[in-house]
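Supplementary Note 3. Input sequence used for the single-chain structure prediction.
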Amino acid sequence: MLDALAALPFWQAFLALFAAAMVRSNGTYWVGRGAVAGWGRYRGAHGGPSARAETLLTRLGPVAVTLSYLTVGIQTAVHLTAGVMRMSLRWYVPAAVVGSALWAVLYATVGLAVVQAWLAAEAGSWWGVAVAGLVVAATVAALVARRRRRSAPASGLPPPAGTRRPRSVARRPDTTRTRV
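The predicted structure, written as discrete structure tokens, is reproduced below.
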């Protein structure tokens, strides 16, 4: 696939990548629009990306959709969340067009050249396989450590001085007593 895209003239590669980005992002948006009932279950399983996407969409609106094309790891969550939040097509489609065009230009120029050069340099090299293995191992180790940190039980010690209690734990005045 990469060889076929790299062999095309720029405008053909751009159009192919643009179409792929539009189909993928709009498909994800419409899945979000149709999957509102299951959003709670998805959000529980994917709390980090979906919470970041929701925050971005609330704060930036359509700009978040456009900028999501320049990110890795949150792009799908932004488009799915835009669908779930029922972002108006009047705002979503232009943002998706601009973002898809940016992504297609970057990938058709720099992206394909970098990937192709890296694959050519590393083809048949044991060093390339070793480096790729180390990157995968480091990523897995970081994800496992992060998950363990998040699921670790609280130590039971009081919070450090100067920190606030969560609102759910904050003491509220006793309103059950009546004044005489």
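The helical segments are 2-7, 10-34, 39-45, 47-60, 62-68, 75-84, 89-122, 126-151. The mean pLDDT is 76.
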